[in-house]
C-alpha cells in the first residue's frame, strides 16, 4: 500500500511540476509579445508612457533577469502565495480574487459530481439486461452525454429563466442583496444554485449510466456469475456481486473524468454568470488578465490533483486488493 | 441471422481467404446493425451539410446581410442574429469547421496514442516506464485548463491550431488502452515467430500487432473524434475559438454574449447545440454498433 501511494504521489508531484513549468514557459516562449499586447490594449499614445508601461510589465514578469533565475523566482513567488496582481480587479492580488470564487465552484461541482455519479450508477445497474428499462435509459444516456455542457445550461436557462420565469438566470445570489448570514440570503443562494447544478448533474448522469450498464453486462457474463446462476443463486444476489465488481472501474473513471467535469463546470458558470472560477476565466480572457488566468490554471490543476488523491484513498478503502499489495487500481 | 453465410465463414477457416471472409462477416453484421446504421446516417447527413452547405448558402456567415433578429422564414431559414447575420450561413460553415476539428484533433491524438501505446507495450522495460510516466502526467492534468492558457496567449487562432493543441493533449487514455492490449499480444506465438525471422520492431507492430486490434483502433478514433468536438466547442464558447472563421461553439458564444436568451432568439442558440449533440451522439451510438459488429459476445441474440 505504501508503494501504491508512493507511486501516486510521485505522479502527482511530477504533474504539478510540469504544470507550473508549462505555466511559466507559455508566456515566455509563445509567439507574440504579451507585454506589447498589454500596452497596446491600454491605448496610450505618449511614447514616454508606453516605455514606462513596458518597463513596468517587464519588471512584473521579471523578463529582464536571466531565464534560469526567472524560473526559480517563479517557484519562490508561488510558494509564498504570490500569484501577482490582477489587472481586471486591480489592485487586488490574484490569490484573493481566486479564493473568493473557489467556494462557488466547489459548491457547484462537488454535489453535482457525487450525485450524478450515484444516480447514474444506480440507473445503469438497474437498466442492464432489462429490455424495457434498457431501451429508455440507454438512448437518454447517449443524448445527455453527447450534449455540450453549455448548451444544456443555455436550454435550462432559457426554459426556466426566460420562458417560464420561475428561476433566476444570472449571478450567485440576488443583485439586491449583500452577502450575509441570513435565511433570506441562503435561500437566494440556493435559488441561483439550482439551475447550474441541474445542468451539470444531467450531462454527467448519462455517461455514468451508460458506463455502469456496460460494466454490469460484462460482469454478468463473467464465469463467477454463470457459476452462481448454475448453483441456483437468486438473481438479486448475482446482480449485487456484479455491481460490486462493476463499481471499481467507475471509481477510476471518476478520476479520469475530473478534467472534463471541471471544464463543464467552467462553461456552465459562464452561461449563468455564476461567480465561480469559470466567470473569472472569462473575465481574465476578455481583459487579457494573464496573471489571473495563470493563477486560475494552477488552482484548477491543484484541485484536480487533490481530488485524484482523495479518489485514490477511496479506492484503497473500497478495493481490498490494493491494501494487500496486489494489483488493483492502475490509475 | 437467417442466412448461413457468416457461419460458414467462421466454421470453414481457409487460410488463403480468411481475411476476406472476416471482412464479409463484419459487413454482414454491419448492415444489419440498427445502431450503426442510425449513427452513420446522422453523421453522414451532417457531413453533407458541412461539405455542400457552404456552396448552397451564398450569404457570407459573418456579414450583416439582413434586418436584425428576424425569426426563421423562407428567406432566412434559421433567422438572423442581433446584428442581422444569417444564422443558416453560420450554421453550415460551423458544421464544416466542427468536422475539421474533430477529424484533425481526433486523428492526431489517435496517432500519438497509438505510437506511444505500441512502443511502450511492445518494448517494455525502461522505455515503458518513462512513457507510462509521461502518459500518467498528461492524463491527470485537466486538458481544458492547459488549452485555455495556450489559446489565450495565441494571438491569432485558427481551426488547425486549435485541433493541433487538442490533439496534443487528449491522447493519454488511448495510449494506456493500446499499451495494455499490445502487452497481451506481444508474447503470442505469431509475434515470436516474426521476431525469430528477423523482422524489425516497427514492422512487427505495423504488420503483426496493429491488424489484430484494427477494429479497436478504429473505434478509439471515433471516440476521440466525438470528444475533440466537445472540447473544441467548450473552448469556442469561453471565447478562445478560431479568430478567422465561425464554428458551432462560437455561435453559442456569440448568442450568449449578445443575450439571445433574454431576447428569446431561440433560432440562434438551439441549432448549433443540437447539431453538436446530434453529431457526437451519433458517433457514440455508431461506436456501440461497431462494437457489436466486431465483438460477437455483444450481439443481441
TrEMBL record, chain A:
Keywords: Membrane, Transmembrane, Transmembrane helix, Transport. GO terms for biological process: transmembrane transport. CDD domains: TM_PBP2. GO terms for cellular component: plasma membrane. It is a multi-pass membrane protein. The keyword rRNA processing does not apply. The chain crosses the membrane at residues 9-26, 108-128, 149-173, 193-211, 246-272, 292-318. It comes from the Bacteria. It is found in: Cell membrane; Membrane. Residues 102-311 form the ABC transmembrane type-1 domain. InterPro entries: MetI-like, MetI-like_sf. Belongs to the binding-protein-dependent transport system permease family. This is Peptide ABC transporter permease. The lineage of its organism: Bacteria, Bacillati, Actinomycetota, Actinomycetes, Streptosporangiales.
From TrEMBL, chain B:
The keyword ATP-binding does not apply. Its main location: membrane. InterPro entries: BP-dependent_transpt_permease (IPR050366), MetI-like (IPR000515), MetI-like_sf (IPR035906). It comes from Acrocarpospora corrugata. Keywords: Cell membrane, Membrane, Transmembrane, Transmembrane helix, Transport. It is found in: Cell membrane. Residues 95-289 form the ABC transmembrane type-1 domain. It is a multi-pass membrane protein. CDD domains: TM_PBP2. Belongs to the binding-protein-dependent transport system permease family. GO terms for molecular function: dipeptide transmembrane transporter activity. This is Peptide ABC transporter permease. The keyword Transport applies. The chain crosses the membrane at residues 36-56, 76-95, 102-122, 134-154, 216-240, 265-290. GO terms for cellular component: plasma membrane.
Amino acid at each position: 500500500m505504501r508503494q501504491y501511494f508512493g507511486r501516486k504521489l510521485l505522479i502527482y508531484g511530477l504533474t504539478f511540476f510540469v504544470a507550473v513549468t508549462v505555466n511559466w514557459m507559455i508566456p515566455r516562449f509563445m509567439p507574440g509579445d504579451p507585454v506589447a499586447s498589454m500596452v497596446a490594449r491600454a491605448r496610450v499614445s505618449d511614447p514616454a508612457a508606453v516605455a514606462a508601461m513596458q518597463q513596468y510589465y517587464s519588471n512584473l514578469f521579471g523578463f529582464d533577469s536571466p531565464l534560469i533565475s526567472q524560473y526559480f523566482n517563479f517557484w519562490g513567488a508561488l510558494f509564498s502565495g504570490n500569484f501577482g496582481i490582477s489587472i481586471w480587479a486591480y489592485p487586488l492580488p490574484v490569490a484573493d480574487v481566486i479564493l473568493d470564487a473557489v467556494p462557488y465552484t466547489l459548491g457547484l461541482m462537488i454535489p453535482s459530481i457525487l450525485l450524478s455519479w450515484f444516480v447514474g450508477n444506480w440507473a445503469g445497474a438497474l437498466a442492464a439486461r432489462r429490455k424495457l428499462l434498457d431501451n429508455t435509459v440507454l438512448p437518454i444516456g447517449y443524448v445527455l452525454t453527447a450534449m455540450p455542457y453549455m448548451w444544456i445550461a443555455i436550454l435550462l436557462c432559457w426554459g426556466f429563466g426566460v420562458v417560464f420565469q420561475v428561476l433566476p438566470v444570472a449571478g450567485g445570489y440576488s443583485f439586491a442583496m449583500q452577502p450575509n448570514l441570513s435565511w433570506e440570503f441562503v435561500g437566494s443562494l440556493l435559488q441561483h444554485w439550482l439551475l447550474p447544478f441541474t445542468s451539470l448533474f444531467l450531462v454527467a448522469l448519462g455517461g455514468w449510466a451508460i458506463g455502469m450498464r456496460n460494466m454490469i453486462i460484462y460482469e454478468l457474463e463473467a464465469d463467477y456469475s454463470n457459476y452462481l446462476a448454475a448453483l441456483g443463486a437468486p438473481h438479486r444476489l448475482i446482480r449485487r456481486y456484479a455491481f460490486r465488481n462493476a463499481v471499481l472501474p467507475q471509481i477510476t473513471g471518476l478520476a479520469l473524468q475530473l478534467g472534463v467535469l471541471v471544464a463543464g463546470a467552467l462553461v456552465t458558470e459562464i452561461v449563468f454568470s455564476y461567480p465561480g472560477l469559470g466567470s473569472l476565466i472569462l473575465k481574465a480572457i476578455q481583459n487579457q488578465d494573464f496573471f489571473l488566468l495563470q493563477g486560475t490554471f494552477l488552482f484548477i490543476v491543484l484541485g484536480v490533483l487533490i481530488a485524484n488523491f482523495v479518489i485514490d484513498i477511496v479506492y484503497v478503502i473500497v478495493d481490498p486488493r490494493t491494501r494487500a499489495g496486489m494489483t488493483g487500481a492502475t490509475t | 441471422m437467417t442466412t448461413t453465410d457468416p457461419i460458414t465463414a467462421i466454421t470453414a477457416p481457409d487460410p488463403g481467404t480468411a481475411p476476406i471472409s472476416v471482412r464479409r462477416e463484419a459487413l454482414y453484421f454491419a448492415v444489419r446493425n440498427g445502431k450503426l446504421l442510425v449513427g452513420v446516417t446522422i453523421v453522414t447527413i451532417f457531413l453533407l451539410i458541412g461539405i455542400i452547405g457552404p456552396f448552397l448558402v451564398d450569404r457570407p456567415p459573418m456579414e450583416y446581410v439582413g434586418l436584425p433578429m428576424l425569426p426563421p422564414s423562407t428567406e432566412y431559414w434559421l433567422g438572423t442574429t442581433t446584428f442581422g447575420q444569417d444564422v443558416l450561413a453560420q450554421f453550415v460553415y460551423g458544421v464544416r469547421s466542427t468536422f475539421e476539428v474533430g477529424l484533425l484533433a481526433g486523428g492526431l491524438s489517435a496517432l500519438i496514442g497509438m505510437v506511444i501505446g505500441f512502443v511502450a507495450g511492445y518494448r517494455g522495460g525502461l522505455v515503458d516506464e518513462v512513457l507510462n510516466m509521461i502518459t500518467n502526467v498528461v492524463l491527470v492534468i485537466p486538458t481544458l485548463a492547459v488549452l485555455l492558457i495556450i489559446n489565450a496567449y495565441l494571438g491569432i487562432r485558427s481551426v488547425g491550431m486549435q485541433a493541433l493543441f487538442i490533439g496534443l493533449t487528449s491522447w493519454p487514455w488511448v495510449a494506456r488502452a493500446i499499451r495494455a492490449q499490445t502487452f497481451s499480444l506481444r508474447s503470442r506465438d505469431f509475434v515470436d515467430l516474426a521476431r525469430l525471422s528477423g523482422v524489425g520492431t516497427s514492422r512487427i507492430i505495423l504488420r503483426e500487432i496493429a491488424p489484430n486490434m484494427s477494429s479497436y483502433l478504429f473505434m478509439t478514433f471515433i471516440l476521440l473524434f466525438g470528444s475533440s468536438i466537445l472540447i473544441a466547442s467548450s473552448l469556442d464558447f469561453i471565447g478562445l475559438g478560431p479568430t478567422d472563421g465561425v464554428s458551432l461553439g462560437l455561435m453559442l458564444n456569440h448568442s450568449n454574449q449578445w443575450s439571445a436568451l433574454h431576447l428569446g432568439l431561440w433560432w440562434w442558440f438551439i441549432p448549433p447545440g443540437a447539431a453538436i449533440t446530434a453529431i457526437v451522439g451519433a458517433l457514440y451510438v455508431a461506436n456501440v454498433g461497431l462494437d457489436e459488429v466486431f465483438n460477437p459476445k455483444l450481439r443481441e441474440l
